[in-house]
Predict the structure.
Amino acid sequence: METGLKIDNINYQKLNKKILTDINIEIPLGQLVVLLGENGVGKTTLMRIISDLNKGYTGTINLNGITDEKRKMLVSYSDSLLAFNNRDTLGHILNFYQHAYPNFKSQRAQELMTFMNLNYAQRLGELSKGNREKFVIVLTLSRKAVLYLLDEPLSGIDIFSRDKIISSLIKWIDDDTILLVSTHHVNELEQIIDSAIFLKNGKVIAQRDVESIRSDDGLSVQDYYRQVHLEN
Ligand SMILES: Nc1ncnc2c1ncn2[C@@H]1O[C@H](COP(=O)(O)OP(=O)(O)OP(=O)(O)O)[C@@H](O)[C@H]1O
């Protein structure tokens, strides 16, 4: 059986506007990968397509050999929690997740809640922006999945919590999984990522191993990103 994530020729448009063009990406299991690109380039759209939330694309997405919509059982992605009410407590939402997803691990959720200093009795609407993002990380990493998607997970989180989360991100996921993270701050993830995917104008302009960017190009991922962005 094929393993890992293989995206072939994804094209997607919305309201007659071309958003993603000929997207081809391959990620083996065990990798932590960042998705980089300017505002509006299509990072969230791509994550929603992978999770089967956005339909109407052409091309194929193969996750561990599964190409139909069943793959969504192997993907853990929590978008903006808009389906929940601001008066819902975090405990209520966790309870909902536990019933909605057979792969939800309560023990892990409990550990992550403690790690993030979040409280079951807090209401969603009372959370600050950063604490809401921490809660999205809790929900995402509490499921046993093959592919974890985090969409700009740290943008509102303070530097101390950020350091703590980044340095322990790997311990929350199993070895045979993929973590795909979109970010505008690649420098802070640089030490822990295996590879990076660079998007521009709805296309993949490069996918590179971090190790080869350092050894072959002598650049940091951030500097390589600037270079490849200007060249394309
Ligand atoms: N519901 C929608 N209807 C129409 N166009 C949309 C919709 N959602 C997103 N788009 C468009 O799709 C494109 C890609 O948006 P997307 O949110 O995927 O970008 P992004 O790379 O995640 O951006 P950012 O870095 O700002 O989060 C944008 O041009 C956006 O205007």
